[in-house]
Amino acid sequence: MLKALSLLLVAMGAWPLADESTAPKVTTVEVIQGGWGDASTEEVHKVLLSVIECIENKSGVTLGVNVRVESRGGPVLLSRRDPDGSFRIRLQIEDRYWGQLIYQFSHEFAHILAGHYKSIGEHFWFDEAVCEAMSFQVLHLLAEKWKHSPPQEGLRNYAPLLSEYADHIASLCSPVEESKMAVWYRDNKEALTKPEQNRSVVRVMSRHLSVWLQREGWLWERIPTLGASGVVVEGVIGDSISGRVRRWLADAKPEQQLFVDQMSRCFSGR
Fold this sequence. Notes:
With 270 residues, the chain is mainly α. The protein folds into two domains: 23-114; 124-265. The protein is 48% helix and 6% strand. The protein is built from nine helices and four strands. Strands 1-2-4-3 form a four-stranded mixed beta sheet, covered by helices on one side. Helix 2 links the parallel strand 1 (28-31) and strand 2 (66-70). Helix 2 packs across helix 3, helix 2 crosses helix 4 (124-148) and helix 8 packs antiparallel against helix 9 (257-265). The protein is globular, with a radius of gyration of 18 Å. The relative contact order is 0.13.
């Protein structure tokens, strides 16, 4: 089923299959000149590579693609790849606000890892929440790593600011206890599925997903199948978010099933 869904994504133009004979063995980044303020392209490049290394190590997947990054026009992952097959990410940042840079870039890069090229299905808000949760976790992980091994020595002092930035963004919504998530989902279901996303509402889910990614490390390895689990095939896939979660985590091990059940109950609407 997963193979079939992956092929459907390709047919829709959402995720072109790479030619393994020509795909690079490592993921590379090109930083487009201009608009970075007092941050040099070399500094930006090193920070972005640090993000990619973190995400690929946690997920266990090396994408082996090239990513072009601009400082303006986003943050967004463009829906079409460049003529040479490169992905293009546009951010909205300048100067040495490394926390903001990591937050924006890791979110958009997470969409590449998850196989997203366009919104698929009414539950794309969930994908957005997962990608934001990943960006929170990347900030916390790099905060620890940069204390001992920064991309360059001048970035060591920024390490504690990364976690502070993640906590600041997470605080821009009203937290909901996990035991009350089903009621929260019932009350916010309509707002979540609207095309114009309410970030403060989606962020409630991001906060929980961030905790779950930290606690249930195996979830990182499921990110590459997130996009495929959201493809709606008539007569095969339903449209409930709890069903979407179960499709996404269908290959969970027996000892992980308790968490899958717990996560699905958050969307029971009871």
